[in-house]
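Final report, Chapter 2: Outcomes

The project's central promise was a pipeline that accepts a single protein chain and returns its three-dimensional structure in a standardized token representation, suitable for archiving and comparison. That pipeline is now operational. To close this chapter, we reproduce one record exactly as it appears in the project archive, with the input sequence first and the structure output second.
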Amino acid sequence: MKTLLKIVGVLVALVVMAAGAGFGYLMLAFPKVPPPAVVTLEPTPERLARGQYLNDHVVGCSTCHTQRDWTRFSGPIKKELEGAGGEPFSLGGAGMLYSKNITPAAIGSWTDGELQRAVTAGVSQDGTPLFPLMPYPHFGEMAADDMHAVLSYVRSLRAIESQVPARHLNFPMNLIVRTIPAAGAPQPRPSAQNKVAYGKYMTSAALCDDCHTPIDDRGQPLPGQTFAGGMEFLETGYRVRSANITPAADTGIGSSTEPQFVDKFKAFETPSDAVLSENERRQNTVMPMTAYAGMTREDLAAIYAYLRTLTPVVNRVTRFPDAK
């Protein structure tokens, strides 16, 4: 009996040692991302203008890194707090995130290379891996000129001091997140004359698939459901599900013409200040339509052209299940 207990004790010790070694390896070896590059951003008027357009209407840095007003249609940002962070994002059982302050009050000491690494590779100034709700896999593929324009504009935001709660990631997500960051691989921006290729680039920059592709319990995209909608959000206080934007005739955008698709966005170019009733809030969208409405008609048309090339997926989505 004593011999058996000794054997069990040795096995338990080996398991503990192996677990400890594995934990140590994850903590020391990851994230596997190169040091920040030597980058010097040049905030020319042209670059700042391009950066503001992309920030405000395409990539949405300010949309995520600013508290939003969910009493109004599509939750516009609280402009006086632009970039100050603090918007909550629940990960369910995986934890809780809060968007960071990206104004000079928080990132003023960062080098341009450190800022670029965080946005395109997912590693903070101090080496902390960022959760991929910060869409660095997409931003890592953006053209260098566009990324530098965005970063230059973010640098120009008004400095705002703010206290943002720390994120909380539960086991095992607190370990998994260390393995996700990867060096960016910027791609050239296609010519706007190549409408489908340019539309694919803009669709990625605008993160359309991140919200319009349903995921499983582990946060992985469901196979064969890319852009098919049905991802559920709770930011408005009620359940909201993303739309199917594949070219399926009855359940997607297959019956929409290009002008209809573009006009659906441009209709909100002048945002309303009206406060929503409770029932209207039950049907409010988390999609920042008033921000995307500022995209040019040409860019929206290119996105439409690309979406039309996708495989149609029949998936009927009940967008607002809590509506009365």
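Archive annotation: The mean pLDDT is 91.
This record, like all others produced under the grant, will remain available to the consortium after the project formally closes.
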